[in-house]
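Troubleshooting: if your tokenizer reports a length mismatch, compare your output against this known-good record of 307 residues.
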Amino acid sequence: MYNLFKEYTNKPVDYPFKNVYITHSGIALKGLCILKNSVFKNVSTWIFYKYAIYKRVTEPKIQIEEKNCLIIHNHWSSGYHHWVTEALTRLLVVDHKSYNLIIPEDYPEFALDSLHYFDFNSIIRLPAQTGCFVKDVVIPPNPASGHYNSHTLLQLKTVLTQNLKPTINNRNKKIYVSRKNAKVRKIENETDVINLLQDNGYEILYAEELSFKQQIEIFSQCTDLISIHGAALTNCLFMPEGSNVIELYREPQANLPEMNYCYQRQTAALGLNHHYIFCKTGENLGTHIDKINLNVNLQQLQEAILK
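Known-good structure output:
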């Protein structure tokens, strides 16, 4: 049977692939074979293969002539969590200063801003909804999604925070990140939640209103973080070791998908204390798990923040 998947397990992380097609979302094809470096070790490759073949046929394409190109984005890295923990960490295994980074021009501002913390030979902006043929490209292996290497995360933390100059007055922040402005997956009794937290010295933030630099600065001084399961919890990366993270999560139910433990794993890798508060589900029950609203038990929340 013809092998549709190409693995280069014996090649170095800076192995240059020749004559590769890369979809706008970062999936790489060598001929009709998918390069496993560009997808996840713990997610079905077949799903990405079908998508990449479809895009190879249908999406607009450009030719990139530059040599020593570099790809770090993946199929999900337009999202904050995947960008920080999966795309940026790939820069730690190559000498990025010598490469021409290919990045979609329509990527979120936080992603483009984060590139200022790294040096490149140049940055090539890939037009929106467009794939590319690349003659010479390095694709560092994509990490397993939702699983973290402690050394890698701490190394990334050092790179992103090494030039910070925090002020004493702003240390030991207690922060609640709200999803009030989101369309889905919100706290339905958030007014009561915010009143309780403010009475206990918590600051209320909206992550979408903060630049990447601001998030680094703020959360590097945060010792207590509370938020609903979601990308805002990624910012625990910047918190001091030994800090506390409370994750508001839907209560386990037999008819719902299994839990996503990614933030529990991330906090463990960073030496932080993690605590779940399981919440009753609200509106949108029965839709996609990422859309379910929650209701927080205020007594449980009060007990958790006083521990």
